Each structure stands twice: as C-alpha cells, then as structure tokens.
C-alpha cells in the first residue's frame, strides 16, 4: 500500500485546529477554524476523492483520540466523509495506548509501519498526525504528500513538519487553485533534498 499524508496548512505553516475554534486548544491555541471559511465545493470534492482512495487510516495517538471524540457523533447523512471515516480501519501508531474504542482499530509500533506498507492495497492515509508524518517521511516510508493551503496567516500555533528530520526532496505532481483561493498540492518524495550554490541566472 502507498502511505500518503494529507494535511491542511496556512501560509505561515500552521496545521493546528483548521476546522473549528474548539478543535485543538492544546498549548493555549485560540485561533482555530482558519480553514473553514475557504472550504468551497471544489475543496470538498477533492478531499472526498482523496479519502475514497484509502484502505485505512494511519494515525498518531493524539489525532486518533481527537478523531474518536468527534467523528462518531457527526450524524449529517449528507456529510461525504463521516461514513468512510468511521468505517475505515484505523492503524494507530502509539507506545502508550492499550485500547482503541473507535473501531475498527489496530495498535501499532512505529517499526510495524513498513510491514503494513508492504501489504497489497491502495493507500494508508495520514490525516493530522504531523509528528508521525514527518518521522515516516524522514524514514523514506511516505509515497505522497497532499497539502491544502489556505489563504490565511494564522500567526500562532503548531506548525506542519517542524519536527527534526531528514531533508527530503519532493516533486510536484499536481496542483490546483479552488475558487475560494485554496491550493491543492500533491508531491512525491524523491529522496534526499538537493542543494547547490547559486552561480547566476545564466548558470541555472
């Protein structure tokens, strides 16, 4: 299976609390809900398509617990995500949890992810769980990174991929701007990030 990362991010790199003011107030964060004003129909369509590619979710402990507290209680029959989010197998990478009430779910160690990735199937999708995503990206275990970039500067909050890790190169494979101004970007990792010294425009 392919391991893919899907993340919502602001122009200043914040990934915390995109959906609502109360989504994630950890570390005193009070600026949640910054993505929702820009969530137009094209964004919903794209996000729904991405989720339709999943054979399972790959989540860290904190994201699993946040999702488990929210998704089972979303009852809107027209919501395009609820049924799939609740039904998909959840693979929770944790060293602390001993049970997982939001089923179907399996508890994993970080070292188990490579074996799951080697199984046949479509995608294991990381949503949220930025620390886990960064660790897997550094370990060469990520096949695609999908970003939804909101046209806003949040100014505070936990940032995407800010954790220490290997420098990884990426190749842009698709890009689109929604009518509301969000960017839908998909990258594939290409190995170590290249570096070079600038020698002037004629040398580029």
List keywords for this structure.
204 residues, Dihydrofolate Reductase, subunit A
Kindly describe this structure.
- By secondary structure, the chain is of the alpha/beta class.
- The chain has one domain (about 1-190): Dihydrofolate Reductase, subunit A (3-Layer(aba) Sandwich).
- It is built from 5 helices and 8 strands; from the N terminus they run E-H-E-H-H-E-E-H-E-H-E-E-E.
- An 8-stranded mixed beta sheet has the order 4-3-2-5-1-6-8-7, with helices on both faces.
- A hairpin with a 5-residue loop joins strand 7 and strand 8.
- The longest helix is centred in the first third of the chain and has 12 residues, at about 40-50.
- It is globular, with a radius of gyration of 17 Å.
- The N and C termini lie far apart (about 35 Å).
- The model has no long low-confidence stretch (mean pLDDT about 95).
């Amino acid at each position: 299976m392919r391991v893919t990362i899907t993340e919502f991010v602001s122009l200043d790199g914040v990934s915390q609390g995109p959906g609502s003011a109360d989504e994630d107030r950890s570390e005193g964060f009070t600026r949640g809900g910054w993505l929702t004003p820009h969530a137009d129909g094209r964004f919903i369509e794209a996000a729904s398509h991405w989720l339709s590619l999943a054979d399972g979710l790959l989540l860290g402990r904190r994201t699993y617990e946040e999702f488990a507290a929210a998704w089972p209680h979303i009852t809107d029959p027209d919501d395009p995500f609820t049924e799939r989010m609740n039904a998909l197998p959840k693979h929770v990478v944790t060293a602390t949890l001993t049970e997982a009430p939001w089923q179907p779910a399996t508890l994993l160690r970080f070292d188990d992810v490579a074996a799951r990735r080697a199984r046949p199937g479509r995608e294991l999708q990381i949503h949220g769980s930025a620390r886990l995503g960064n660790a897997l990206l550094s370990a060469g275990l990520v096949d695609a990174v999908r970003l939804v970039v909101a046209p806003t500067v949040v100014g505070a909050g936990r940032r995407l991929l800010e954790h220490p890790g290997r420098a990884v190169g990426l190749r842009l494979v698709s890009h689109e701007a929604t009518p509301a101004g969000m960017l839908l970007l998909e990258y594939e990792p290409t190995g170590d990030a290249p570096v070079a010294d600038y020698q002037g425009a004629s040398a580029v």
